[in-house]
Amino acid sequence: MSARTDTGAVVALARKDLQLLLRNRGALFFAIAWPVLVAVFFGSVFGGLGPRGQIPIALVDEDGTPASGKLVERLRTTKGIELSVAPLEEAERLVRQGKRAVAVIVPRGYGEASGRLFHGAPARLTLAIDPSRTAEAAMAEGILTGAAMQGVQEALTDPVTSRAMVDRSLADLETAPPGADRDAATRFLGELRTFVGRPSVTSGSAPGASPAWQQVAIERRALAATGEKPRNAFDVTFPQGILWGVIGSALGFALSLVTERTRGTLSRLQTAPIARGHVLAGKALACFVTILAVEGLLFALGRLAFGVRPSSWGLLIAAGFSVAVCFVGIMMVVAVLGQTEQSAGGLGWAVMLPLTMVGGGMVPLFAMPAWMQVVGTVSPVHWGILALEGAIWRGFGPAELALPCGVLMAIGVLGLVAGARLFARE
Amino acid sequence: MLSLTHVHMRFGDVVAVDDLSLEVRAGEILGLLGPNGAGKTTTVSLAVGLLAPDAGEVTLANLGSPRLPGVRRRLGLAPQALALYELLSPEENLRFFGRIQGLSGRALSVRVAWALEFASLTERRRDPTRILSGGMQRRLNLAAALVHDPELVILDEPTVGVDPQSRNAILDRILELRGRGRTVVYTTHYMEEAARICDRVAIIDHGRLLALGTVEELIGRYGGEPALVARVDGTERRLNTREPAAALARFAAEGRVDDFRVERADLEGVFLQLTGRRLRD
Questions:
Q1: Contact yes or no for A5 and B88 at CB 8 A
Q2: Which label site among A247, A374, B87, B227 has the fewest CB atoms less than 10 Å from its CB?
């Protein structure tokens, strides 16, 4: 046969296998649906489905004063929370249903209490929390404390507001029972009144125009996307899901070659005017195309729906290509060694399942103990996940990606050669 | 068209084909007749190049061994198993097998249409193969061996597991192939089929060729004389003779003949004579 006819036969074989795959619901499930379930489920468990990194909070404003209004506005602009204002019953329902981690209740009297300085009952806020989300509740408490303190700080650095607060407190003290505490507080507030009543030394302009004083100023600085941390849980679970899809596809194709053998279609192919290598090449081509399609589909889903994005498209393509070559090689060996569907399926999963477990297919690589990370290096799954993570969030450059990609390519080429030799020997 | 010369094949300790020599003539239907395990399928595998003989030579159309891809273009195989893709339609199966045989474009479409018509599956061409009846799948299995119009067609037990109506349809189509000048090698353990369609029959057992010839030749050579069976005065009498009319006259002279029949030898008798056992044992 000419080279053109050879290519035509290989393409025909690959096309047939792709047709069969598209009509095999079971194979499609394990190639696409199962990996998506893995990626989305574990991503949701570890990272939540709300806006990424934000704690969902329901706020009930029972006070309705300018002070409580200011608190609400301050919280609306606070990063790290997703705020929605609701009546009390609605807010509690949202927490019970798990749609909000915390309900913040601003009770009546908040505005009154927050106008007092150094005496009287403190301004109170109530948190209604979902007991299963204590970590988020603790973070919400910290954010609320910060917002409330910011209000006090703004009041003290505004001369008009602070003088009014001091005057009101001094008036309250006049009706308090006599004693050493009252005298000390009166002296302190008198000095404070003198301090806040003096002209501003920083600007000399209108009261209230001076910059707010802060004990500690915390700035946020966004890091570039190449930071060596996953941006969200899906950055971790989608490479895992992609590897599950790749394994499902590869083992599916391995089984399909065994099925050809047991059903007799392989005999028919072997009596056609094509070389045995063409049969294997067709299977490998179909497997390769399928793995690339599975990788592309899963990544597109991760990109569009879960914010997964590569640090470099070029490196991601290189990683995906290497993973495909590696698992096509593995498919070839399993296909040739398995004489029946049962033995090929058993052999495939018996080998791949432990390799997937130690390779980071179930527990993220970075969460594994050090010794297991070392053991995991025997697994192609480890190198596959590392390559994909390197291109997505680990910030690998070409030099760093070369190691996992090189290992994957080497495994793939070894598998291809071994599979072809074993097949030729049959 | 196909010659096997002193071919020997063994699997471990089992001798599957033992010094088999056979010449298949162009345009004939040659039946390979033998019981299960006689070595028919191994002989077929050697003939189509799926197996390489331990010794001896297999040559197709004076071109060389069928293990050479270029030589295999001349033959078509319908394996005993239904070697089809169940999730594909008959048309898709035939298009695929045509493509790997090197057909493309209009030539492929023409041959696929012919094969569908040959298998009487034109109306069901787009149904998934898995929902077709057993007989339809058998016909498709045959059509897939013919889609590239091979000169030699090798059919390995093509009527196994089909109903009598489908069996007749398959046998009619094989005769049609001979009418189109194709050479057919047909393995079976049904002697009636061999007697009906084969120009010559090769009887095989334990991997050895026991006899080769037309059905008449084999019966004449190994079947023995016809038998006259008559009920004379209430007693059944049997006499092997080449002149049953004369024998019947003798019975009539001896008593009252109530009933009689002449039993001719058949391939079953030939096989029994050659091997000491029946074909379906």
A1: no
A2: A374
pLDDT digit string, tens, across residues A399-425: 999 999 999 999 999 999 999 888 887
Among A197, A222, A247, the domain boundary falls at: A222
Domain of residue B251: give its range: 225-264
Q: What ipTM was assigned to the predicted interfaces of this complex? A: 0.83
The answer to whether A274 contacts B50, with C-beta atoms less than 8 Å apart, is no
Q: Is residue B51 situated within a structural domain?
A: yes
Kindly state the tokens that stand for A171. 């008036």
Q: Return the pLDDT at B87.
A: 93
A369 or A258: which leads in pLDDT: A258
Residue of chain A minimizing CA distance to B148 = A272
Q: Supply the range of the domain harboring residue A86.
A: 55-222
Q: At which of B144, B164, B193 does a domain end?
A: B144
Residue B67 forms contact with A (CB below 8 Å) = no
Phi first, then psi, for residue A50 (nearest 5°) are: -70, -175
**A240 versus A167: which is more confidently predicted?**
A240
Distance from CA of A6 to the nearest CA of B (A): 9
Left, alpha or beta for B233 (phi > 0: left; psi -120 to 50: alpha)?
left
Per cent of chain A over pLDDT 70 is 87
* Within-domain flag for A5: no
Burial A119-133 (b: 16+ CB within 10 A, else e): eeeebebebbbbeeb
Task: Say whether both A254 and A213 belong to one domain.
Answer: no
Given an 8 Å threshold on Cβ–Cβ distance, is A271 in contact with B50? Answer: yes
Beta bridge partners of B211: B203
- Mean pLDDT estimate for chain A: 81
pLDDT of residue A224: 43
pLDDT attached to residue A53: 57
Global pTM?
A: 0.70
Of A222, A248, A283, the residue that ends a domain is A222
Q: Are residues A214 and A265 in the same domain?
A: no
Q: Are residues B134 and B181 in the same domain?
A: no
Q: Do A23 and B99 touch (CB under 8 A)?
A: no
Distance CA B201, CA B187 (A): 10
Give the B window 34-53 contacts with A, CB below 8 Å.
45, 48-50
For residues A141 and A250, membership in a common domain is answered with no
Nearest CA in chain B to A24: B87
**Token pair belonging to A126:** 């109530």
Q: Looking at chain B, which residue has its C-alpha nearest residue A21?
A: B87
Q: Using the CB atoms, write b or e for A207-228: b if 16+ within 10 Å.
A: beebeeeeeeeeeeeeeeeeee
**A43 found inside a domain:** no
Please answer yes or no on whether A271 and B102 come within 8 Å at the CB atom.
Answer: no
